[in-house]
Amino acid sequence: MQQQKPISLPLAFAPIIVLIPLLAANVYFFGDNSLGGSNQLALLFAAAIASIIGFKQGLSFDEILEHIKKAINSTLGAIIILLLIGALAGTWLISGVIPALIYYGLQIAHPSYFLVAASVVCAIISIASGSSWSTIATIGIALLGIGKALGFSEAVIGGAIITGAYFGDKMSPLSDTTNLAAAVSGAKLFDHIRYMLLTTVPSYTINLIIFFIIGLNYAPEASSVGLNELNNALIESFNITPILFIVPALVVVLIIKKVDPIPALFVGIISAALCAVVFQPELIEQLGQKSSYLKNSYFVILSAAGADTVIETGNTALTDLLSSGGMAGMLNTVWLIICAMVFGGSMEAIGALQRIAQWLISGVKSLGGLLATTVGSCLFINLTASDQYLAIVVPGRMYKDAFDAKKLAPENLSRTLEDSGTVTSVLIPWNTCGATQSAVLGVATLTYLPFCFFNYLSPLMSITFAVLKIKIKRLK
Predict the structure, then answer these.
(1) Is residue 474 domain-resident?
(2) Does residue 302 lie in a domain region?
(3) What domain range includes position 91?
């Protein structure tokens, strides 16, 4: 076997130059259905280009495959969580948990402040749990149903939910990305969090102001929605009781207690299944149509957890809300994540990501230029490696020496990594975060992206602070 040659910059960019036009063409031709296979094939084709370059550089197929295996292996936990979230959505639907959250939510929600409230509630739960994924998969799904019933588009509701969840994830000392950014830059955890407040609070405040303005403009439309009719249809289709709140409360408590998401979600599925048997006998009889209640319960619960479920009501809008794809509805996303990791692993194997990062930093002179390059690198890794953890680790390692050379405290680097690497991952359809949240909410990434104000204000705020030299901490 030949020794691997250092990759040239044009060759490092070649797979990306192939990938981006393919993805753009897929969005043009397939629209929201681009996750149905076209984007996956584009990622695999770009990975093939990277592999061919690797062969020319002296790499064997086994060496490239080993990097791909490591990349896929790093997402196995996320894939299991994704499948469990699908099962959770199905069981929470037939148990009456989601309908109960919608019913009681409509009693207290008002269109003028709903978007602000949704974002703040998600932020609080995400700070307490340290997990944007768990927050969106639980309270986020319920808020989406409430918002649609109030007359909001799924795009703006998705934006409010995601901005709150990612604000909380970014600021929580329990979050894995928060701890990772501090560790890779050499900053102390709570120094890192306090330093992030300087850019994060202004970004999130602007985000809430925009959502409040949108809510005021949506209020006339929402008032025309027959909320009483929706509530009556919910009562007719489900046995609505506050006791059902025990299920989401149990999951949230487990997550706050730092129980691993996989067993926490599993507990949520089992408890919801038990509630379905106890509280929704009429619905189970309607959906099952077997010879006994036990057989009906088994059939309906497993069907809801594993496949499509639609609860027919007399209200068309409500019927659209009361549907779930179960675990089967997550398979396109699982497929996308695997293909994205094939591309990311092959790019890492040939040294393309490192070579591009070295090129980016080579001409940096000013403080603003350094932070802007770090932000751009985090976004670039999110686009190419499709993983927010790599978008923190790779730039963190690449730029640490440059920050030290300019006598910048490590909090500058850790804040920049979070302002860009963490929050932009959910805006990219083929990134693990973007693909997951799109599947969980049932809203295409490019649909909710325009309303994720906080997520693209954060990197802009970080660059602005650097250019204007506002609150830049120096080493003594």
Answers:
(1) no
(2) yes
(3) 81-326
Shared-domain flag, residues 243 and 116: yes
241 and 382 assigned to the same domain: no
Section 24-53 average pLDDT = 83
Using pLDDT thresholds of 50, 70 and 90, give the confidence band for residue 219: low
In angstroms, the Cα distances linking 219 to 25, 150, 317 are 37, 9, 18
Residue 4 lies in a domain: no
Total tally of structural domains belonging to the chain: 2
Residues 178 and 290 in one domain: yes
Residues 417 and 438 in one domain: yes
* pLDDT at residue 225 in the model: 45
Are residues 266 and 319 part of one domain?
yes
**Measured between alpha carbons, how far is 160 from 170 in angstroms, rounded to an integer?**
16
Tell me which of 310, 326, 342 is where a domain ends: 326
- Check residue 227 and give its pLDDT: 65
Task: Specify the pLDDT at position 66.
Answer: 93
Q: pLDDT confidence of 1, banded at 50, 70, 90?
A: very low
Which residue, of 326, 347, 369, is where some domain finishes? 326
| One domain, residues 292 and 351 | no
**Residue 28 CB neighbour total at 10 angstroms:** 9
Q: Report, as an integer, the average pLDDT of 331-342.
A: 82
